[in-house]
Specification:
single chain, 319 residues, Arc Repressor Mutant, subunit A, Rossmann fold, 3 domains, 5-stranded antiparallel beta sheet
């Protein structure tokens, strides 16, 4: 089975076997740091928004930006960067991060061959800085037979996990929170509809996460994004109104973001849907899509009579 590996600045990254090597030495990384590295490398053609990266690495939207920042710091340290020169991972102001190191893609041999032949794929250009005291010493491969047993055990565990997940999905019931009388006025933020070139498709989940995080600051009770996506995936042939406006769910409001790019200006519209009354919408525009999403969310809070608990004021409504 073929797969891709990547070499850059004396490093070899093998996503399939989850290994990072430098000059013949294995570089230990936490699971989140490794996932972050792989996602940045595989999407190196464009900047990656913070919300997109958080969703890709942690598979959830309620992760604090500081955790992402700490993960990037540890990753840069492992790659020999201090964050000032930024020759590998560049910080894109108010957006996120972008992989900028020259990278060679290998339509690689199997993982075992990459292990034994890694020296031919790793032109040494620089010495990686020590990772620090928060990580274990560099891992060295055990004998091949033991390595094969470990891989076999891991594959078996993955297969069992997938089977269990499929069984759970096939037999799952409505979430327990749906029957709680204390949560009878929940709000759902839907994935954004994006009218922009394909490289901006990540805004579908990115804007969804941003809007959900911001309205939570306004003390609005929301259904978590993973739960929303799971319910939509389970009933993908139904409309959002049919999925969410059920008495047993206790959901009173949906928010549908729409993102439009026209002549270099981003417009973010938030359409408010309710079960038993006419909807409403607010919108904001900016040259920066995340700023437009922030402003539209502030206007939304003002429209529904909520104030931000952090004291920040909503922007003025454009004439």
């Amino acid at each position: 089975m073929n797969h891709q590996s990547y070499s850059f600045r004396g490093f070899l990254l093998n996503p399939l076997s989850r290994e990072l090597w430098h000059d013949g030495e294995a570089i230990p990384l936490s699971s989140s740091a490794f996932d972050c590295l792989v996602y940045l490398v595989e999407h190196r053609e464009r900047p990656i928004g913070r919300d997109e990266l958080i969703s890709a690495v942690w598979a959830r939207a309620d992760v604090n930006d500081s955790l992402l920042a700490q993960t990037i710091v540890r990753l840069r340290r492992a790659l020999g960067e201090d964050g000032k020169e930024q020759q590998i991972i560049r910080t894109i102001l108010r957006v996120g991060y972008r992989w900028i190191a020259d990278t060679v893609v290998h339509a690689g041999p199997p993982a075992a061959e990459l292990t034994t032949n890694r020296a031919t794929l790793l032109p040494s250009t620089s010495k990686a800085l020590p990772i620090g005291t928060d990580g274990p010493p560099a891992y060295r491969f055990p004998p091949m037979r033991r390595h094969v047993r470990i891989i076999g055990t891991a594959v078996a565990a993955i297969v069992l996990s997938v089977c269990f997940a499929c069984f759970a999905l096939a037999h799952r019931q409505l979430p327990t929170w749906s029957m709680s009388p204390a949560k009878r006025s929940l709000t759902v933020v839907l994935p954004a509809k994006v009218n922009a070139p394909a490289q901006w498709n990540w805004l579908g989940l990115g804007v969804m996460a941003l809007v959900a995080d911001q309205i939570k600051i306004g003390d609005v009770q929301i259904v978590s994004n993973p739960t929303v996506l799971a319910l939509m995936n389970n009933d993908h042939q139904l409309t959002p109104q049919q999925i969410f406006f059920k008495p047993e769910l206790g959901i009173s409001t949906t928010i549908q973001p729409t993102v439009l790019l026209k002549n270099g200006i981003w417009t973010v519209r938030l359409t408010i849907g309710r079960a038993n009354e006419a909807g409403d919408d607010v919108q904001a525009a900016s040259a920066n899509v995340l700023q437009a999403a922030h402003d539209a969310t502030y206007l939304l809070l003002a429209r529904i009579g909520k104030t931000r608990s952090d004291g920040r004021q909503s922007p003025p409504v454009a004439n």
